[in-house]
Design goal:
Helix content is 76%, strand content 2%. The protein contains nine helices and two strands, in the order βαααααααβαα. Strands 1-2 form a two-stranded parallel ribbon.
Length: 164
């Protein structure tokens, strides 16, 4: 099953907002760096804990907006980030509560969560391939995704600290 997803655009914008929100509130470079590192570490833990070889965190985040599309981009963009934030914070809380149960339990929870909210069966979720130019990060292991996100955030923090 191939999906031409516009959920990719919303997922990327959500990640940028999620990692960049401290820049709008904090003027001290050191405090900004601390907030960005903490924020990116939480994101890295969530990505690592939920990503399985078949249904990664990124794949689920790309599928969620497709379920909540209104048909008009101008209307969808008003609420889709709140929907994605709800799912992200719900997932972060679930990861925090399930850390002691192990990663496989959290991965199963993530697949069930995405299946329930996208109305796709688990088998359909595992067979979905995206026809987008940036599909290769989904093929990487979850550790590679987490480390890649962490490196990008550290580079962004360094850039913004020295750019001021």
């Amino acid at each position: 099953m191939i999906i031409r997803s516009t959920g990719f655009d919303y997922a990327v914008l959500f990640m940028v907002i999620l990692l960049a929100w401290p820049m709008t509130l904090i003027n001290t470079p050191l405090l900004l760096g601390v907030f960005l590192v903490i924020n990116s570490l939480i994101l890295a833990v969530v990505v690592y804990a939920t990503s399985s070889p078949r249904v990664s965190f990124w794949k689920g985040l790309r599928l969620l907006p497709n379920r909540y599309m209104s048909g008009c981009v101008n209307i969808t963009i008003l609420y889709i980030f709140f929907v994605l934030a709800y799912h992200y914070f719900w997932t972060a809380g679930a990861v925090a509560l399930r850390l002691h149960l192990g990663r496989s339990h959290t991965q199963t929870w993530w697949v069930n969560h995405i299946s329930r909210h996208t109305r796709l069966s688990r088998q359909d979720l595992e067979q979905i391939r995206f026809s987008a130019w940036l599909s290769s990060p989904m093929q990487l292991g979850s550790q590679a995704q987490a480390y890649g996100l962490l490196i990008l955030v550290i580079l962004a923090v360094t850039f913004f600290i020295f750019a001021r």
